[in-house]
Specification:
This protein is α+β, with helices and mostly antiparallel strands and 198 residues long. 29% of the residues lie in helices and 30% in strands. It has helices spanning 2-29, 32-60, and strands at 78-82, 91-94, 97-100, 105-115, 131-139, 157-165, 168-175, 189-197. It has an 8-stranded antiparallel barrel with strand order 1-2-3-4-5-6-7-8. Strand 6 (157-165) and strand 7 form a beta hairpin. Helix 1 runs antiparallel to helix 2 (32-60). The N and C termini lie far apart (47 Å).
């Protein structure tokens, strides 16, 4: 009982911090332009920090933190070098942004979690239950065209599917239009490349 009470006392500051964060995000959400930024900040910055804090608090109670499943990587960040010859060159992930060594950058917004069993994901040769992160591509700066049109044979790219697996990253790039999985995506695929974390 004492152990439970001690854990409860340690979690109170965390609960207070989360309540304050939710209140700030609620105020930001009233401004439609800030709502997306608030979501991205919560997903790519605040949530990993909260997970780290919770892991440290759990570790202090004597209960070992739960290790992530083998091969999982919930947040893609850092530099990735292509295997072989990829026209993108090295990729740098910073929050919701992706910088291409070949020039240009993309902003991304989450669309949905897809699975290896879906038809558009067949080129990856993944297991049916493997998850892919499907994101919409946005210009790095508002009112500017999307970079990397050469990667799609002159067409505008619009979607990206990412499959992290340990230090490996599978990437599929699709032309703008309906999201992959909603129509015949074979014609929409611009390319598929594999990268390794630097």
């Amino acid at each position: 009982m004492t152990h439970v009470q001690g854990t409860s006392q340690r979690m109170k500051p965390l609960a207070g911090g989360l309540a304050l964060l939710c209140l700030v995000l609620l105020f930001l959400a009233f401004d439609e332009g800030q709502a997306r930024s608030a979501y991205e900040a919560l997903r790519y910055q605040a949530w990993p920090a909260v997970q780290g804090l919770a892991a440290r608090l759990t570790d202090r109670t004597g209960t070992p933190p739960v290790a992530p499943a083998a091969g999982t990587n919930p947040v893609i960040f850092g530099r990735f070098a292509p295997r072989g010859d990829a026209p993108t060159g090295e990729l740098t992930f910073e929050g919701a942004s992706i910088r291409l060594e070949s020039g240009g950058a993309w902003r991304t917004e989450p669309h949905r979690i897809a699975y290896g069993r879906e038809g558009f994901a067949a080129p990856l040769n993944r297991r049916p239950e493997d998850q892919l992160e499907l994101r919409r591509l946005l210009p790095a700066q508002a009112k500017q065209p999307l970079a990397g049109a050469a990667l799609c044979g002159g067409d505008t790219p619009g979607w990206i599917a990412l499959r992290p697996h340990g230090a490996r990253l599978d990437l599929m790039l699709f032309r703008a239009g309906p999201p992959p999985g909603s129509t015949d995506s074979d014609r929409a695929l611009c390319g598929r490349w594999v990268y390794d974390r630097r």
